[in-house]
Amino acid sequence: MELLAFCVGDFGCVETKTESGVPVRVFAPRGMEKHGKFSMELAARTLDFFGNEFGSPYPLPKMDMVAIPDFSAGAMEVLPSRLY
């Protein structure tokens, strides 16, 4: 299963690498990149933790995330509960 998203806008990014060398990037509207720093650092540590914990490294060549402010439609986890 794959998840694909297209985001159009003026985005900047912050980037780091995990201990195993996987690039982790967070894209955010230009000027707000610093707000993605915590998510970026947490994601990098999480990939390393689970890779070590389960003995299986992150299988993809990179991890990219997009921070979208004022997303009033709700998260994907919330949508199914609205259908009932």
Walk me through what this model shows.
The protein is α+β, with helices and mostly antiparallel strands. Helices cover about 25% and strands about 20% of the residues. It has one domain: Zincin-like (2-Layer Sandwich), CATH 3.30.2010.30. The chain has a 3-stranded mixed sheet, covered by helices on one side. The C terminus is likely disordered.
Question: According to CATH, what is the topology?
Answer: Zincin-like
Query: Percent range for helical residues?
Result: 25-40%
Number of domains: 1
From the spread of the alpha carbons, the general shape counts as: globular
Strand content: 15-25%
What is the total tally of β strands?
Answer: 3
Tell me about the largest β-sheet.
Answer: 3 strands, mixed
What's the Cα radius of gyration? Answer: 15 Å
The rounded distance between the terminal residues' Cα atoms is: 25 Å
Point out poorly predicted stretches. 77-84
State the helix count. Answer: 2
Category by helix and strand content: alpha+beta
The succession of helices and strands, N to C, reads EEHEH
Widest sheet: strand order? Answer: 1-2-3
- The level-1 CATH class: Alpha Beta
Average residue-wise pLDDT: 83
Instruction: Name the CATH architecture.
Output: 2-Layer Sandwich
